[in-house]
Amino acid sequence: MKIEQLRDDYLRSKTQIIVLDKQGKIIESDDILFQIELKSNIQDFHPFFYIVDSMLLEDNVETIFNGIHIEYKTKKKTVEVIFNSGSIDKNPFLIFIDFTYYYNHFQSIAQEKNESVINFHQTELKNRELQAEKIFKDKFLANVSHDLKTPIWGTNFFVSMLERTELTEVQKEYVTTIKETNNHIYRLVEDLLDLSKIESGQMSIINKPFSISELVNHLDTICKPKATEKKLSFTVETDARIPESLVGDKSRITQILINLIDNSIKFTKTGAIKLKIIQENLNSEIATLSFEVSDTGSGFEVKEKFEVYQSFKKLHTSKKIDGLGLGLSIVSSLVQLMNGTINYETQLNKGTTFTVKLPLNIFK
């Protein structure tokens, strides 16, 4: 018997050749080891072959995968896999070489390796998909926010011009409604942008000297009219021991507190909203302040405490309460960026208290 015939007879029973197209669809198979359905996708045969997806698009790439455990229908085999991506005039193909007999002596090791390879590559592919989705989302939000801001600014400009004309009382109410609607849309756009910046690591904290009394006056000016409109009282209590000048990001601290106060106003029908600023710790360089925002509102129920701070997680499902559920997620992220902590206590139909603790440098 000639050596070529010996080689052919011996290897024929131990190898299988599968021809693919560039999309990974099975065109031909000699079915020596496994009987495979033609025109099906190679990934449907076994999830390991998701790994060849990206390589199918390249030319003349050849790779060998060792010790791949395949269970298909009633057959279980451990094979070496040779993959060739083909070229313009040559189809991609796979060659399975049956090493089941040899690998059976090391089955546990082979299985562990196989699972490790699959998990690694699936994780890698998943991470690539998540990164691509994240990049797309960030670009999408940036573009949409720009497209939304321009007409909002234009509408506000013409509304301000309209306010200068002689209007009836009814027309004044209409103008006020348009302004409030525009401002609400603008805040939603800003929330989406802030969330995108936080998730992409582009949000930065800018620490500068600021006056605690100016911060309180600013909050009072912004928040009291909102509370009064709902016939709620709004008060601020400030610990007299707090140093007047501190170093921190006043803009972000204001954003945190306005978000919390706005939530309290939104979920409170009657009663009061209170902001208490307390000095908890003080040394020669740092003052740790506790900002407590409490209300007599509806409270809420959650299964897990961390759920409150998840993006797009709304505290209430009522359609009468607007918002995207971004406020507390942004607040929590900003607090973490400032090395602070946030916590809350709530009772259904009795009220909620959010407590933010921030370490702030003392300005000297």
Salient structural properties:
42% helix, seven-stranded mixed beta sheet, alpha+beta, 364 residues, five-stranded antiparallel beta sheet, 8 helices
Q: Topology of this protein?
A:
Blueprint: H1 3-12, E1 15-20, E2 26-29, H2 42-45, E3 62-72, E4 75-84, E5 93-98, H3 100-103, H4 107-163, H5 169-199, E6 208-211, H6 212-229, E7 233-238, E8 245-248, H7 250-266, E9 272-282, E10 286-295, H8 327-337, E11 341-347, E12 351-362
Parallel strand pairs: 7-9
Antiparallel strand pairs: 1-2, 1-5, 3-4, 4-5, 6-8, 8-12, 9-10, 10-12, 11-12
Helix pairs in contact: 4-5, 5-8, 6-7, 7-8
Give a nutshell description of this structure.
The chain is an alpha+beta fold. Helix content is 42%, strand content 25%.
Walkthrough of the structure:
This protein has 364 residues and is of the alpha+beta class. The chain is 42% helix and 25% strand. It is built from 8 helices and 12 strands. The protein has helices at 3-12, 42-45, 100-103, 107-163, 169-199, 212-229, 250-266, 327-337; strands at residues 15-20, 26-29, 62-72, 75-84, 93-98, 208-211, 233-238, 245-248, 272-282, 286-295, 341-347, 351-362. Strands 6, 7, 8, 9, 10, 11 and 12 form a 7-stranded mixed sheet that branches. Helix 7 (250-266) packs antiparallel against helix 8. The longest helix is centred in the middle third of the chain and has 57 residues, at 107-163. It starts with a helix and ends with a strand.
